[in-house]
Amino acid sequence: MSDRSAAPGGLALVESLVNTLDIESGADALDTAQGRALFGLTEGEVEEARALRESLRAALLAHAGHAPHRPVTPLGELLASAPLVVAVDERDGSACLAPPGPADGASLLSRTAAAVAQALVAGTWTRLKACEAVTCHWAYYDRSPAGRGRWCSMQVCGARAKMRRYRSK
């Protein structure tokens, strides 16, 4: 849905995971082998990935000041079981939380937890939001100066909301 550029850093993973489901059409990219391959998932891991996706969506709706779209497992509970290690770069001594082992072989849960942790440190976590349109809830990174973006796209969801508001007057 969104015409915005991707979220920065590891938040791009979170954004792309949330956006695997098109709520309006019901199409779920995790139903396809190609969609699962983007996240390194097997068919057996899809249900856990869906639970993570919907918990992330609820958190992103909260960032935008909205109630969860449906009952979900709290994101904190899911991420609590994600193994992370403190990785220190030997060249410059910088450190970050990262999934244990090679990043491409780490679980989606661990990669997501690392992305959230890095975004918290960078101060960008709350800028990742979900569109307020109930037929959308697409994830987008809010680059507005005041951080008050409401829709994934002004041309689609924003225009629809404004037209509904205009017609109701």
Please describe what this structure looks like.
The structure is a single chain. The chain is mostly helical and 169 residues long. The protein has 6 helices and 4 strands; from the N terminus they run H-H-H-H-E-E-H-E-E-H. The protein has helices at residues 11-18, 33-37, 46-63, 75-80, 108-122, 154-168, and strands spanning 85-88, 95-98, 128-130, 139-141. The strands form 2 sheets. Strands 1-2 form a two-stranded antiparallel sheet. A hairpin with an 8-residue loop joins strand 3 and strand 4 (139-141). The two termini are 27 Å apart. The mean pLDDT is 88.
- What oligomeric assembly is this protein in? single chain
Poorly predicted regions are none
Alpha-beta content class? mainly alpha
What's the pLDDT, averaged over the residues? Answer: 88
Strand content: 5-15%
The biggest sheet amounts to: 2 strands, antiparallel
Helix-strand string: HHHHEEHEEH
Secondary structure: elements and pairs:
Elements: H1 11-18, H2 33-37, H3 46-63, H4 75-80, E1 85-88, E2 95-98, H5 108-122, E3 128-130, E4 139-141, H6 154-168
Antiparallel strand pairs: 1-2, 3-4
Summarize the structure.
By secondary structure, this protein is mainly alpha-helical. The protein has six helices and four strands; from the N terminus they run ααααββαββα. The chain has helices at residues 11-18, 33-37, 46-63, 75-80, 108-122, 154-168; strands at residues 85-88, 95-98, 128-130, 139-141.
